[in-house]
TrEMBL record:
Organism: Polaribacter reichenbachii
Pfam families given in the database record: Polysacc_synt (PF01943)
Protein name, per record: Polysaccharide biosynthesis protein C-terminal domain-containing protein
PANTHER family given in the database record: O-ANTIGEN TRANSPORTER-RELATED, PST FAMILY PREDICTED COLANIC ACID TRANSPORTER
Subcellular location: Cell membrane
Lineage: Bacteria, Pseudomonadati, Bacteroidota, Flavobacteriia, Flavobacteriales
Cell division among keywords: no
TM region(s), chain numbering: 20-41, 53-75, 95-114, 120-139, 151-169, 175-194, 227-247, 267-289, 301-320, 340-361, 368-388, 394-414, 426-444, 450-468
Keywords: Cell membrane, Membrane, Transmembrane, Transmembrane helix
GO cellular-component term (any): plasma membrane
UniProt membrane topology term: Multi-pass membrane protein
Amino acid sequence: MIKSKLGGFLKNKQGFLRNFSILTFASLFAVAVNLLVNIYLTRAVSTEIYGAYGVVLSVVNILLVMSSLGLRHIVIINIARNQTDSKFHFENAMILRVLGYFIIAILYFGYSLIINNYSLYFNLLILVYLLLLSIWDGIQNLAFGMERMEFTGYLNAGGYFLILMLLIIVPSKDITVETILIILILVQVIKNAFYYKICTKINLLTYVNNKTLIDKEYLIQLFRKSFPYYIMAFLTLFTSQVPILFLEKNSNLSEVAYLNAANKLMIPISLILSTALTALFPNLAKSYLKDKIKFMKNISNALIFILIFGSIGCLLINLFREEIVEIVFGDNYTNTGVILMTQAWFVLFNTIFGLIGLVLGATDNQKLLAKLSICYALVNTPILWYGSYFGAKYVSYAYLIGGIINMAYHYYFFLKVLPKKIDSKITLYFFATLFGGIFLSIIMPVNLNLVFRVLMALFLILILGVFIKKKFIKNRTYE
């Protein structure tokens, strides 16, 4: 019986469960290999080099957000709602992406000549990698809008594996940030070529005959609709990427390495939670227009899923945080256990904020979303700036404090924009579980007997298993 139900939703190529399950499982190998890449780097290079590598990635991510013009969500919505004419939306979006890239590339190049400490050659490598990532994101938006999400996981897995192999080939003494960046560029070229080829081969680029592909009025409209997301993404940088630069300036590169290492260990739980949101988004965009009851059902269950899975994941990480860090990264990173615990809870907060953002986007409340992003940045940035003076540990505490403060008013507006009232019990369970879990993590001694901690972990896993069986297998919550 369970087998037939699983087969049912997997055959539905555009259902939430199919998208979520395939995208998740396809990405699990990618996560594992990516973690191996970072484990290898932490053991092959000094904390200073690993920290410098983290700074470069933050710079690239900042430039990527600034050049993307906030197009991602609107393009996915447009393609999801017009799947017989995806080529029109894809090509117009790529025109804006290229325009945004050249504007940011010129600004960055001018900045690098005046202030930046990197060489001209290194800055050119950064700009080449930025262009490749921008193209990847554009192709990915096409696939996500057509609700064919598994290819991202497959290609990322292959890409990380190739990166690992190339790093192993290079002698440890020759691994520099520049070497790593060149490897990333080579692998990204291969990934982009394969992704576009796959999309064309399975006919994801659909079009309407006799329709002009490039539309000036549509380009203007697309930019206007995307602008609130652009503001949101730009402001989010102040709490996602800019703190890395704060640490570099106010502490040192080793502290950047500690925070980076903890973040990499958070990839598995972050992947599953963010994948759930990615798979849910096209479904929300369509159901809001066609079926408000289904829309509310998916929102309620998504909130419950994220909360239960995330909280249990955070508690499991907290139980073994010291052992995890020591086994994975070695003695140089033994002081990152507390950072790992606080970052785990911040990932959960971030996922909930992401769900709220998706709901605001699906209900066409982009302006409110932009306003909330402004408030979020205004609250978090000074807290993170102050924490960066005391190292990675206090930056991670600053993340958590900012998340708690921002959650109160974000949740209020989340409830306000929903087409129907959400069950008050869900709200009660939401805050009780969230803050109860954080309190338990803080007071839980890290030196508890290992056998006792293993038993606690098994109990938490049992709870999660019962929840998944009830909500996903038995009742088939998402369709």
